[in-house]
Amino acid sequence: MNFLAHIYLSGTDEGVTIGNFIADGIKGKKYQKFPDTIQKGILLHRFIDSYTDSHPTVRKSTKRLHEKHGHYSGVIVDILYDHFLAKNWSNYSDVPLADYIDNFYELLQDNYAILPTRIQRMMPYMMADNWLLSYATIPGISKILDQMSVRVKGRSNMNFAVIELKEFYDEFEVEFTSFFEELRASCKEKLVALDKKY
Question: Is the pLDDT of residue 80 over 70?
């Protein structure tokens, strides 16, 4: 899953949300230097990644992209799934997507000092182009894929993945919807387990 899903699956705890968002840059046991709630978020992020990568529905989605995009297929599916979360946001939250995202950006700004340097550097670009809100539209997803393709020097053909998104739009959406219900339930269980641990 990509940024929006990780943030959403964190629930209402701000520390968990921050931890889940920054987790990709925290390797090994380095998470232990953070406050407990942020540790929980980092561990939740790792659980989400592991659960997602091994799920048969997600593998069905990635297989559709594998011929043209190789090992970048999983990264692309993460982004496409965030599109369907954003597009169908009202099914998952009573807070309008734009307001939810603004609240998240405010949370990052309020906790800027504890964010890893990589996140601090990324924030201005993320907020200026409003990456999270752009997920909701196909042109927005296309722009995100273009940017990611540039980052990996065009090796992934990610910028062309919007073609498959349009061609197999209904299939991807059905797969996302089915998978996300299972992921939400599993994350709730994981958070309960983490609460007991901490």
Answer: yes
Q: In terms of C-beta distances under 8 Å and separation of at least 24 residues, what long-range contacts does 19-25 make, across chains too?
A: 19/43, 19/44, 19/45, 20/44, 20/45, 20/48, 21/45, 21/108, 21/119, 22/115, 22/116, 22/119, 25/116, 25/118, 25/119
Two tokens, residue 66: 């594998």
| Domain count across the chain | 1
* Structure tokens that stand for 117 in this block: 């340097």
- Selection from 194, 189, 183, 196 nearest residue 48 by Cα: 183
- Tokens standing for residue 52: 């997602």
Q: Is the pTM of this model over 0.70?
A: yes
Quote the pLDDT of residue 149: 82
Q: For residues 103 and 105, what is the distance between their CA atoms, to the nearest angstrom?
A: 6
The residue range of the domain holding 30 is 3-197
pLDDT-derived band at 176, boundaries 50, 70, 90: very high
Residue with tokens 């999270």: 132
pLDDT score of 152 more than 90: no
Residues 142-151: tens digit of each pLDDT: 999 988 888 7
